[in-house]
Amino acid sequence: xxxxxxxxxxxxxxxxxxxxxxxxxxxxxxxxxxxxxxxxxxxxxxxxxxxxxxxxxxxxxxxxxxxxxxxxxxxxxxxxxxxxxxxxxxxxxxxxxxxxxxxxxxxxxxxxxxxxxxxxxxxxxxxxxxxxxxxxxxxxxxxxxxxxxxxxxxxxxxxxxxxxxxxxxxxxxxxxxxxxxxxxxxxxxxxxxxxxxxxxxxxxxxxxxxxxxxxxxxxxxxxxxxxxxxxxxxxxxxxxxxxxxxxxxxxxxxxxxxxxxxxxxxxxxxxxxxxxxxxxxxxxxxxxxxxxxxxxxxxxxxxxxxxxxxxxxxxxxxxxxxxxxxxxxxxxxxxxxxxxxxxxxxxxxxxxxxxxxxxxxxxxxxxxxxxxxxxxxxxxxxxxxxxxxxxxxxxxxxxxxxxxxxxxxxxxxxxxxxxxxxxxxxxxxxxxxxxxxxxxxxxxxxxxxxxxx
Length: 453
Ligand SMILES: *Cc1c(COP(=O)(O)O)cnc(C)c1O
What we know:
Blueprint: E1 6-7, E2 17-19, H1 43-46, H2 52-59, E3 64-66, H3 69-75, E4 83-85, H4 87-93, E5 98-103, H5 114-126, E6 131-136, H6 140-152, E7 155-161, H7 162-167, H8 169-177, E8 181-185, H9 191-199, H10 207-219, E9 224-226, H11 233-252, E10 259-263, H12 268-283, E11 290-296, H13 301-304, E12 307-311, E13 320-324, H14 347-354, E14 359-363, H15 365-379, H16 385-404, E15 409-414, H17 422-429, H18 440-448
Parallel strand pairs: 5-15, 6-7, 6-9, 7-8, 10-11, 10-15, 11-14
Antiparallel strand pairs: 1-4, 2-3, 4-5, 12-13
């Protein structure tokens, strides 16, 4: 057979429905709790923040949920995305492994994030909401929601973690180009932000803090909702459009993965890819499939955090959820993979890890860039620093195959390109990067601050 490099679907083959793992979980998820009463959250508690359709999706146990035609129409701007066979990387590694990657970097903002941003802007608009507040770390989510806001005429206000606001001006300019307003967090625009600035005028910010600002903004205005780009069940649901495409495409390639790897910040891109595959593990048809969540050693949520109820944000305004956590006041080391610095993890992924259906590993920053450079010099694509984390693990697994002589099939969830992260590559190439290990004392300290539920 001719050696194929790209596997593609037609536009009409964009899935018509998202896949909801909640229909197939062996045990149901534990409910999120109200941050003040600590009782299970009700739809009314969430109504000031989210449109009703998303609140329903958050708790739905229906297996298939229709993708609205208006959302699918916008997906057509870049979906279906391509599955690549990494022949050139395989050759460079002298590995018998077959490496595939599903590439989400071809969306307008350059990552998987618009898969859910577009749905979020759509449901808000449909329910009469014309302004959304949100936070962003590295700027990927902020730019994705700004793009989605432009698609539906919804105003977007972005609280961007201060250190990234300084380091990554291009993402802010992208947001502004799509018509959004972006401020550095902590900002003077909220009480949470002003209090923090009074304590520490040079506060570098954190995702947890920026979430608090965006939630406060949304709670204090009737015309405004809040949107979260990862972690929540409905976000992972929207991302399954990618995994459903990947499953069809792997069939076209006449292959099924032995190992799936992805990087996890809040877990949305990776879950979006692997959820349709994890179903085969739950069914028992693919018991040996390995699903590896890759995180930075500087934010080792799944590999070193306790599995406990914790607040989703620093100011304790967001719900308390059962997850692996580094503590809600976690302030990460300034690694370049800004999208992987959240203190918690999607409850669905944590639950699947607890059930033994997925595993996790952590990697240092410098080896991730080394892998990213190898990938760029073989496959051409310059990957986001986040994505480099799982490319590292894919390469390591492929090298193990070289040792053992096994021809395993490895599928990489390729979450986006790194064109706006060239300063990080510059730091790597000029030998200025350092590795960070999260200190043990900090994990113990975080444990002592968990809410008592
Ligand atoms: C945001 C981001 C991530 C991490 O977020 P998840 O919700 O864990 O997917 C990973 N890769 C890229 C390119 C991102 O923009």
